[in-house]
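Minutes, project check-in
Item: structure for the 81-residue chain
Input as provided by the requester:
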Amino acid sequence: MPTAYDSGASDVWWAIGRSVLAIVFLFVFKFVGLITAAYGLMYAIRAQQKGHKHGIVAIAISVVTLIIVGIVFLFRTNSPY
């Protein structure tokens, strides 16, 4: 059954939203922030696959967020605080 054309705009906004949530969740729930950042990257890749003009930007934001969240996660799990 044919589906309506999806330009990927919602995927870009989901990727950016998940990146912001990942940073918030990192400080509240630690590991959930890492999962949310990876989930945001999935949405960014999906937006790029659909051909959205800002798909590369969404991927860049998601990758930078995943790196930052990963580094902070490692420091927080190794510290006694």
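Outcome recorded: The two ends are 54 Å apart (CA to CA).
No further action items on this chain.
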